[in-house]
From TrEMBL:
<keyword id="KW-0812">Transmembrane</keyword>
<dbReference type="GO" id="GO:0007165">
    <property type="term" value="P:signal transduction"/>
</dbReference>
<dbReference type="GO" id="GO:0006935">
    <property type="term" value="P:chemotaxis"/>
</dbReference>
<keyword id="KW-0472">Membrane</keyword>
<comment type="similarity">
    <text>Belongs to the methyl-accepting chemotaxis (MCP) protein family.</text>
</comment>
<dbReference type="Pfam" id="PF17201">
    <property type="entry name" value="Cache_3-Cache_2"/>
</dbReference>
<feature type="domain" description="Methyl-accepting transducer">
    <location>
        <begin position="339"/>
        <end position="568"/>
    </location>
</feature>
<feature type="transmembrane region" description="Helical">
    <location>
        <begin position="12"/>
        <end position="31"/>
    </location>
</feature>
<feature type="transmembrane region" description="Helical">
    <location>
        <begin position="300"/>
        <end position="320"/>
    </location>
</feature>
<dbReference type="GO" id="GO:0005886">
    <property type="term" value="C:plasma membrane"/>
</dbReference>
<dbReference type="InterPro" id="IPR033462">
    <property type="entry name" value="Cache_3-Cache_2"/>
</dbReference>
<keyword id="KW-0807">Transducer</keyword>
<protein>
    <recommendedName>
        <fullName>Methyl-accepting transducer domain-containing protein</fullName>
    </recommendedName>
</protein>
<dbReference type="InterPro" id="IPR029151">
    <property type="entry name" value="Sensor-like_sf"/>
</dbReference>
<dbReference type="GO" id="GO:0004888">
    <property type="term" value="F:transmembrane signaling receptor activity"/>
</dbReference>
<keyword id="KW-0145">Chemotaxis</keyword>
<dbReference type="Pfam" id="PF00015">
    <property type="entry name" value="MCPsignal"/>
</dbReference>
Amino acid sequence: MKNILDKLKGSIAKIFVMYFIAVVIIFGLSLKQGNSIYNENKMKGERVVQETQEAIIDQMDIINELYSRQVKSSMNVLIRTGLSIGVPNTRDEISFSGKTVPQLFLGEHSIVGNYELVDKIAGETGATATVFVKSRSGEFVRVSTNVKQDGDSRAIGTVLDPNGQAFEYIVNRKPFYGMVDILGKPYFTGYEPMYNANNEIIGIWYVGFPTEQIRVLAKTIEGKKQFENDCYVIMDMNERIVAKSNDMKDEDILSLLKGGKDAKEWDITVKDYEPWGYKIISLIKTSDIDNIATREKLEVIVNIGIIFLIFSLFIFFFLFTTKKMNKKILTLANNLYESSCLILSTSSQLAMTSQQLAEGSAEQAAAIEQTSATMQETSTMIKQNAENTKKASALSDKTARSSDEGYQHMLDMNNSMNEIKKSSDEMAKIIKVIDDIAFQTNILALNAAVEAARAGSAGAGFAVVAEEVRNLAQRSAKAAKDTAEIIERNITLSTKGVEISTLVSNSFKEINENADKVSGLVAEISVASEEQANGSEQFAQSIIQMEQVIQQNAAAAQENSASAHELETQSEKILHMVSELNILVKGKRSNIEGKNKNIKIDM
């Protein structure tokens, strides 16, 4: 027992234990997978049945929709044609085909025994048509129809089934559309109440189509086969088999549906189709599904067994060849160990260098960032100065233009003052002429007074005139003297104005020259400021680019440091794996881990 335990401690013994565990696990998984496939195939069989039934129902829906449209269209034609003849009304009862019924009229046109309307509808739409009249007993009797009985005779005098759905709907004043058994044959039908002028039900309008499309449905399911023993059946509202997928006998099918002796061996699924009152039935032998599921389950187990056998052969081959490979593996492990030690030492040095580079880059990035902020602030101030200089240059130009305009106005005023002085001089000359004229007039007036005095009384009137002329002459002389004094003062003031305007004009000229010089200097300052602003902005942009490059270098240094640390970690993992490889090959722990610890201590 002790020897056996000692052998189990070796690598080969461990492999055998693992192999045994693998056998148990694979066997359990095979059983589980087989059962899972068995259940899945049973469910698959059920899904196949369900999908087949749904496909049949889809086909029936299409047929039902087509016939419903035909029936409703034909009903509209029947009612419209009938009402165009006249309003429905009933009169005295008569005996008709063994029944006592009221006479039914459309306007003045009798319908009882008259087949003109129903045959016209049959010719136009292809539908069977009938007009019912309500008897005193509450029955609805066919009094005009193109529905044929056995023997090719019209089904007049027959009544609507009082237990059918159509009868119930009509009594409750509702139309009915659906599948109905008429005289033992299924029809797609429509029934509408017939009202008289007092809104009383006196009869029924009917149209219908025989279920010829059931043959198409029978061809659809004919030959459907998913299992060795299966059958799909369509049964009408009277539990008659109208279609089936194979040649299974009707009596056998009905026996299974009624729970006959073999019913337990079959899986029976029934699905109702409510619009027609039909049933879609699937009959599948239970053993067919079980056989398929069991066969696939066995196939899976056999396949897994074959795979496991191949795997076992590989394990035995591996055990026989392991000893020869041990020496090569040990050599590779030692070489891998030496390479890992070198990588570990190099990665440690690289990690330290990368860390120092990252710290230096971070400090340099901080300094550049501070310089960049200062430079951006200086650039902003220079831009502001340049803007202010531009504004000062604009104001200086405006001042120079204003000075030029003032100088020009002063020249115009100086010219005007000279003109005023000239005009004053000319007015003085004119006033002197007026003064001379007044003096001569005064002398003439004195002479006239003397001559009037000599004339005596005859010259009295002339003396008065002469006196008045003398007074006017004196007044004119006095006015001319006053005007002359005013003009003299104006001349004096004009002369002073001319002198002052000349001085102001000279001052404006000097101001204009100085303003031009100032404007030139301000323009030069503006150009220099703008150039300085552009230069500072370029310098600031260069600082920003330097900052970005330094930050990228710092990030790269940090990434290099992280990569070096990761490389160091991976090297340690490789050394550990080499140690484990030696344990696997030799069955004992080597001195590699001790050497690894020494390498870490040296670093």
